Amino acid sequence: MSLSITNVTALAGLTHRQLVTFTGPINSLGAVVGSSSTGATDHAVLWQNGAATDLGTLPGDAYSSANGINDLGQIVGISSTGPFDLYHGVLWQNGTVTAIGTLGGSYSEALAVNNQGQIVGDSTTLGGLDEAFIWQNGVMTNLGTLPGGASANTGGAFNSGANAINDHGQVVGESLVTGNIDHAFLWQNGVMTDLGVLSPGSMSVATAINNNGQVAGYNSSGTGVTHAVSWQNGVITDLGTVLGYDYSQAQAINDSGIIVGYVASTTSNATSNHAVVWRNGVITDLNSLLPAGSGWILNDATGINDNGQISGEGTLNGLSTAFELTLGQGATSSASALMVQNFHDGAMTVPAGLIDSAANVMSSLDGLEAVAAAGKLSSITLTDGGTPTITVTATQAAQDAAALSAISGSYHLAVSGAATTAIGNFLADQDDAGRGANGVGADYAGVAPAGGNSVIGFQSANLTSGVNAMVLDGPRSQYAIAVAANGTVTVTDTTTHQTVTDSGLAYIVFDGAATTTTNGVTGYSSIYFIDSGSNAQIASLYQGVLGRQPDLPGLEYWQHQMASGAANLNQVAGAFRGSGEFLARFPTASAPADHGGPNDSAFVIQLYQNILNRAPDAGGQAFWDGQLASGAMNRTQVVLSFTGSPENMQDVGAAHGGWLIDPATGGYADAGAPSVIQVTGNASTTILGGVSSAPMPSLTVV
Hints:
The chain is built from 15 helices and 41 strands. The protein has 702 residues and is of the alpha+beta class. The chain has three domains: 5-18 and 109-332, 6 Propeller (Neuraminidase); 386-513, no CATH class; 516-686, no CATH class. The strands form twelve sheets. It has a four-stranded antiparallel beta sheet, with no helix packed on it. A four-stranded antiparallel beta sheet has the order 2-3-4-5, with no helix packed on it. A hairpin with a 2-residue loop joins strand 8 and strand 9. The longest helix is centred in the middle third of the chain and has 13 residues, at 420-432. The relative contact order is 0.05.
């Protein structure tokens, strides 16, 4: 259902001669607070059930204004002797008004209260600074400032202020930073965090926060252009404005992520402010939803509750008044469904970001694909904690690629059905669409899944089983890689700060799968291999025995042979030793005897030359000759010892930029740094895969 307005109600003033009123927030029961003229001055007002109640002032004061209300009916605001005199923060409760005190100075202002009775605002300190506070049970605590803010100004200056608090005690507001610029902050558990700005040198203010931690506010550039913004998981998003208005500001947000505020113009294109609502990043002028001839101009929306009730200010038949209205049923739909509906209604004129749960994204995925295909879906931010799972069919994985690739951050992609080809098509589609700049990977000819494994991209999935390849468009230097001792790999794109974690990863190909050719075999210019059981051992066989980078289909084949139990490492090495490619490199290996033959010494010499690139030392030659002559080791076992030796691992790392990742320590070799596989423990178990042998005098185990 598209957005609509019902029950627009004027909130009468305290005098019937005029309707001039100013509103603040609205609670879950539809109660609104603000201020209204008494004829002589303004007083704080509560509007509830069609009636306006004068909340009064502190004894001896003449002026008051209400700024916040919770669902328990507690109201906070200010009281003073006059509108321009020193304010005192106050709490109205059970018909009584009480001053809440200060941080030691002469001034305080209470701006918001949550359902735990915690109050936030700003107050002067004993030293004359004006700083944010949180008040609870009669105790007021200074929240301080962001780094650089505490010394930014002298006495009497505004250093920080708290504008809103949710039921979890998370506080938002603004604070000076170095350079005397305001930045929006989030305060929780005693720590104040800078929420950032849209561009260097601009300022930002957080005005509201919901119980899901979503924050709304505004950002102003150095040229004075102000736009409403939102923050989700530390990411700031420009909410934009409407045609003809160059200024916007967000005032409130409910737990569904619906934001209200207003737009204004610094040009002659518009004559008054207009109240607006943002759903899923899509802005709607509330005046466009009014019936013709209503007499209303809605200028500012100041509050919204979870029932879709909005409070604000406007004019009715030319008289200034506060209003309360209710959004139609479309406001209670999921953010994903509403975006799809807005798209089909033609209401999306510019690309918008979506903030919603994984479940809601899944339920509207096909519709979101249409939005993305039209270029109207800029991003999807999932509100779930941890790493959520999105379950799709194999067909959806391919057909809804554009919508899935718009998701920022990490998530699990669970594909039901025969997914191999679909995931390959999905990733290829991402690459073809030019989304590689966001770290999205792509399938590539030659990385075709074998044995039922899957090829994944950076944003597409976190796969936890199988033998998976990750293909990334950026260079190796663009990514930070961490490998845990259990083989779990975490890759972070240092440009987008997006992270993917995979416990089933076998190798990573960089630079969009750029290829190179060695000894007539096509490989990849920049590739990392992660030890997942046998992966590093097989890769070292390719490099040491055949003198080249593994071809990925071959690597996958041998991995699956070992994983299924069809072959062990000795059998794989034996297959390599019997291959035509191996025999071409090692002519002496063609002798019929596996050991004890007349050319054992020649075979050992050739291993030294072809694998270690050096002549044998006398002790090493004698050792290996003795092993073969006595039958303690056969030629396959000797080949495994040479290829798995630290000396060969070091040579391989130096020659290829350090691509073998250490299974024993969990560390990894990095391009441009010294790289060597650190083998710990007995050489017989680490290098020979369980085949017993004596220590190797010329091949040092570290």
